[in-house]
Amino acid sequence: MTSNIIDSNLAFDAKFSPDMPYALGDPRKIRWDKYGLFGLQQTKENVLSGYGAYSSEWERGGPVQNDFVSAAAKNAGFGDSSNQLREAGANLVYHAFQVLIEQGWGTINYAEPGAGLSTVFVIKELQKNKFDFDRCFFILIEPSDERLKIATDYLKSVDLKEGQHFVSIHGRNVDIAENILPGTLDIVYSVATDHHSHYPYHERKIEANATRGGGIKINAEWCPPTCYHPSMLYEWLFINDEVHELTRDVWKSKGNDEKMFERLFPQYSDAYPDLGQLNMQAWKEIMQFWMIGYPQAKLAMVDAGKMALKGDPNDIFLFEAHSIPEDVVKSLKEAGYETSLEKSPLLAEIYENAGLIENPHRLLADSNRLAIISGEYVGKPQQ
Ligand SMILES: C[S@@+](CC[C@H](N)C(=O)[O-])C[C@H]1O[C@@H](n2cnc3c(N)ncnc32)[C@H](O)[C@@H]1O
After folding, report:
1. 199 Cβ contact partners less than 8 Å away, ≥ 6 residues apart
2. Fewer CB atoms inside 10 A, N or C side of the chain?
3. H helix or E strand, kind and range, residue 213
């Protein structure tokens, strides 16, 4: 689906030159606790504008976007990270279902904000393990009809009935409050969706309120600190030699854009925050995607006449609310989840059965780029 809407992502990018081969999008979509570092005030209005910027982004993009993003990921050497996350997440979700059933819970109410291909992976995992679908009810929540349909089409194809086994909600995680009764969910699962939670305490609290005591939240995510400090972006955009080599034939106005970036983000020259080895490695990897893999893929699309360099509806925007695993844990705890395997025997059993030994569970040996982070809802903020 394409759209001609001039949204705030495009409006922000219009501050830079038409030959800049990167799209940043609206900075109000980054984690709100980083706003100050990016020259933004932590106002309610800015947070609400961030929600608006995400919404207009979902209206954009079609099949070309999938090809473009896959090519960028391949160029960055990521392999099939998306399916790796979906597979690992589905395994843990199946064990959560299994343990709750063994503990005598009745029908398991499962909600998935950001439903899509990840839902298909969950259903396949349950099928593989001959799980009784009459013991579960799936609530699929997704703002994009196209992605929601991927999930519902698959459920229907395996004979699950709308109303009896599942419902679909065209909406976001924050719309749960209006659509789901408090204290009724047993499992809340998301893949690569919570990085759109730029005010994460709020999003997690809404999910928590709809969750039964002892219910499980599982988040399979990309966890690089992409937008943790403008200096970490400045370095790659304007100093890095490889980026310069790759883009110099196209990006004639780079000097002007550098000045604009400095004006918009005056803290561009600060030292990097110290986020620890695993998070800094994740940052290098994601920058490899955004600063190298992405322009390579984009310039190839532009050459092939499939995309415009600037303002194309299939473009993707860098400013998002990715969180390092430590911050995901923090938001879960604030919203009333226990994340420690020592303190939650329920979570510990699910993890052990799934063959995982740590929460957060890192999918890569030396980087926090991909992680699964879970919590048991215990109803009050945790230390
Ligand atoms: C990277 S995709 C992953 C989709 C799916 N989980 C999968 O793995 O196939 C992220 C999805 O999150 C959805 N999304 C973004 N913000 C959301 C929100 N606040 N609540 C629910 N879904 C959201 C987007 O529309 C998009 O489909």
Report:
1. 32, 47, 50
2. C
3. strand 211-222
Q: Is the CB of 212 under 6 A from ligand 1?
A: no
Q: Is the CB of 118 under 6 A from ligand 1?
A: yes
At the top level of CATH, the class of 83-223+323-377 is alpha beta
Q: Which of ligand 1's atoms lies nearest the C-alpha of 175?
A: 20
Instruction: List pLDDT tens digits, range 308-335.
Output: 999 888 899 999 999 999 999 999 999 9
> Nearest C-alpha to atom 8 of ligand 1 is from which residue?
118
Q: Is the CB of 96 under 6 A from ligand 1?
A: no
- In this structure, the chain runs to a length of 383
Are 322 and 226 spatial neighbours (Cβ–Cβ below 8 Å)?
A: yes
Closest atom, ligand 1, to C-alpha of 120? 9
The finding on whether 293 has its CB within 6 A of some atom of ligand 1 is no
Task: Locate the ligand 1 atom nearest the alpha carbon of residue 174 and give its number.
Answer: 19
Sequence ranges of the domains in the chain? 8-60+225-303, 83-223+323-377
Predicted local confidence at residue 128, as pLDDT: 97
pLDDT in tens, 158-212: 999 999 999 999 999 999 999 999 999 999 999 999 999 999 999 999 999 999 9
**C-alpha 328 to ligand 1 mean position (Å):** 17
Q: For ligand 1, what atom is nearest to the CA of residue 117?
A: 9
For the segment 68-125, what is each residue's pLDDT rounded down to a tens digit? 888 999 999 988 899 999 999 999 999 999 999 999 999 999 999 999 999 999 999 9
Q: Please state the pTM of the whole predicted model.
A: 0.95
Name which residue sits closest to atom 17 of ligand 1, judged by CA. 172
DSSP 143-186: S-HHHHHHHHHHHHHTTPPBTTTEEEEES-GGGHHHHS-TT-EE
